[in-house]
Write a structure and sequence with these properties.
Helix content is 32%, strand content 18%. Strand 4 and strand 5 form a beta hairpin. It has 2 domains: 100 residues, Phosphorylase Kinase, domain 1; 106 residues. The protein contains 6 helices and 8 strands. A 5-stranded antiparallel sheet has the order 1-2-3-5-4, with helices on one face. It has a 3-stranded antiparallel sheet with strand order 6-7-8. The longest helix has 19 residues. It is of the alpha+beta class and 206 residues long. This is PhoP regulatory network protein YrbL. It comes from Tichowtungia aerotolerans. It holds the Pfam family YrbL-PhoP_reg.
Amino acid sequence: MIVLNDGLVFARGGRRVCYVHPDDASKCIKVLGPNGDPVKRREATPWYKRLRPLSMFDDNLRELKSFKVLEKHTDSVWNHFPRCYGISGTNCGPGIVTDLVRNADGSVPLTVQQYVAENGKTTELFAALETFFFLLRSEVVITRDILDHNIIVRDQGAGLVVVMIDGFGSSEVIPLSNWIKWFGIKKVERKIQRFKERYGFDSISS
């Protein structure tokens, strides 16, 4: 069992807590927090959604499934997504283990939200986002809504690259977008356009 403590926490989301892996600082472990309990989440949904399997309400299990879909793409996806190493037992419950993406200097990258707050919408950020969107389109990578706090801006020293750390994978009960390419292409484009409109990045070329 992996032993985690508060000193290893580097981020807290709405439903999960992110720890630096105590045995490998290049990896992180995400465990469910109090708001991520699958049983409570299912109980809080409308009756018809409670017919879904419990795994649909477990963010770690859903993310693991999404990583397995990513693995079917070319290796180019790993420029913009962390790799996953499965689920491990911890003293805080099961945790999904992934790469902990860092800047060239070893620091933890800012999210797009944080980067814009500190630096504004720089030309470097626009270019990094455009490269990311090109990858989503060319590989037809299905995501849920693309949110500015789920994408980090990695400073490689010689430029910026954006990495999606949460929110990928299909939210469809029947994942037609993963099975039928035409549906996937349309969905990817909708998600990209929604991101641009929501955060004022409309000037990024399509």
